[in-house]
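Researcher: Re-running this chain for the archive, since the previous output was lost when a drive failed. Same request as before.
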Amino acid sequence: MKFSIITPSYNQGVFIEETILSVLNQEWDDIELIVMDGGSKDNTLEILSRYDQRIIWRSEPDNGQTDAINKGLRLCTGDIIAYLNSDDTYEPGVFRLVADHFAAHPECDMVFGAVHHIDPASNVIETLSPGPLDLEEYLRANFYLPQPTVFFRRRVFEEIGFFDDSLNLGMDLDYWLRVVLKFRIDYIPKVLANARIYPEAKSSAMRHLYVEERRRILDKFFSSPDVPEEIRAKKDTFYSNIYLHGSYDNFCIGHYRDCLHYLNKSIRTDPRNVVRPKNYVLLAKKKLFRKT
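Model: Regenerated structure tokens:
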């Protein structure tokens, strides 16, 4: 099996070499690492040039992270595909673990696992083991599927296609939901990757903006005829909960008008959901800089 790893990058010279080495140092012979850089102005290009003989890289203006991932998908030739952001890393031995799972389970098309959250110095902050995918809680925005731990077979890309480049924050959520309607997704109960958490990270700095992208993603999801009826019957609850999350995220950064706006939308969409105790237990566990 050949692994194709796509790394979108922009001005991440402080982290990108660690990311590259976490791929190249895997105990696996057939690796294709594709770095799609958006025209960095820091020392990223100097670092990339050191690995000219071992990676494929391009540096040119793009339309953001999703566009960079799609450019990488156009170049990749592997049997197993993943994207790893330029501030995240893989754990040692992960490719062997993933390849063995796919070999043992030919009916499985995508896997994900547990994740370490690490700080800028690569110290572990916490370890999150989400367990097998709970689709209902995922649609509620209550289930954490760690993007750096995801690997999927090439046949998934051949059927699902590219990431939606109109999405800037939730393109992974959208893609995994498109996958779940057609393919089997397995959970590997091992730490597969490290997701770096710091205030400047896009998923931290902009998380209060997720709500509108999540709404659009739910619109797309429920437009599919493949959605099971038992899921479709709870549609209002899912919308209500993403508005509740939006309210909470805006409250955390002091955007109180937006907080009240989304709380009102949550109540109007499904009043019963707003008094569901489990929602508040989960919201209380959210970390301000957690990747979601």
